[in-house]
Amino acid sequence: MAYMGxxxxxxNRFGTEAFYASLGRAFVAMCxxxxxxxxxxxxxxWLSAGFDLAAGIIPRRIDGLDGVFFAxxxxxxxxxxxxxxxxxILLGTFVLAAGVRRFLYSTLVIILVSGLGVWFAGAPNTVxxxxxxxxxxxxxxxxxxxxxxxxxxxLGVVLLVGLLYGWQLVGILPTDALISWxxxxxxxxxxxxxxxxFRRRRDYDPYDPDxxxxx
Length: 215
Known about the structure:
single chain; disordered N terminus; mainly alpha; about 220 residues; Rhomboid-like fold; 8 helices
């Protein structure tokens, strides 16, 4: 029986035409997401809207709990956003290329684990915003996915990110009072958890563009 589009090969196998096509679409999508973050930051800065205080995570305060969902879309100025943009596009591309559903479910888990971790363990009387928890979550996800799914190209991506941004990986440790290391650490943990929860099923159909294992 012939399958439509089989000539491209397995979209989850490195080196196939389908793999590069999926990667290209994911890259374009992530490049479209980041400008949205810049628009939000522009409104916040130019209109003095106070989004950070209104929708950031305020540890152990009920009125700061909604920031778990909103904080990843906010930043402390454009410099903060610039520092997150490139790794977000790079890692997000590889996470999204593995399937839209897996990307959405994994991102939700990372946001919840990272945000709640900050809310419970963050420094009191602080407001935490930024997508860096998601960035570290994607890093943990790609690393663990390479292990549980035995896809060496995922581990190669982690090595590449380590070479490019290794100096930033210390953000997972409490080295700077101005950096929410809790968000980075719990984001990484959330990514590892998501990779296990939403791993590719062993008997997946190579022509299913979005293989997913649910517990």
